[in-house]
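Q: A reviewer asked whether we had any structural model of the full assembly, not just the individual parts. We don't, so I'm hoping you can provide one. Inputs are below.
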Amino acid sequence: MKNVNELRDQLADTFTALSNGDLEAKTAKELANLAGKMINSAKVQLEYHALRSDHDAKITFLHSTDK
Amino acid sequence: MVALRKCSKCGVEKELCPEHFHRSKRIALGFGYTCKTCKLLALKLWKKANPDKAKAQKKRYHAKHPEKQEEKKKRWRANNPEKWKAQLKRRREARKARDPEKYEAERKAQKQRARERLTDGYIKSLMVNANSLRRKDIPQELVDAKRLQLMITRKIKELEG
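A: Here is a predicted structure for the entire assembly that you could use as a starting point for your response.
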């Protein structure tokens, strides 16, 4: 999961697998926890740029063109 | 040669074209006898003298062409975002002043709906900080990822009972 698009796809797959019963709740919990950490870390980067009023700054994780 | 016509109201001679006269199939040369300025002035005076009739006419027109009205509103909102924001604020405050209890109940219900549906606004409200990050700074992809994470967490809670 190198960027936010990959993270989103992974989370969508996890949700589908969890709903279908193909994935254990424990594993899904760990994945959701990890996703939370990644989202929070991206948020911290956004906050940093917002505090510096650097609104055009590129964050690799968020602004990757890979879909 | 440019054709001219004397307005039957103001008596001013004007060029016979759609800029100065309304079109009319029944009148010679395809334009009315009264110039646009006089027609519009007469209409304005009529509206002032007959406010009820004018209101009813407007209502009938809007009922007949709702899409035109909606388009007009949409255009105005896009062109006047600040005025639109102020108007919404005024309406909100008026609603609050009219019936504070009902207003609070509606607000609570709206918040509850947003929480259940995991709307963009709700997710952004979870992510913003009071001092630095603004809602518009959060990219949509991150909002989507957060939404999925919350959906998974809720599903887990549901499965675990």
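A: Points you may want to mention in the reply: Chain A has one domain: 4-51. Residues 4-51 of chain A form one domain.
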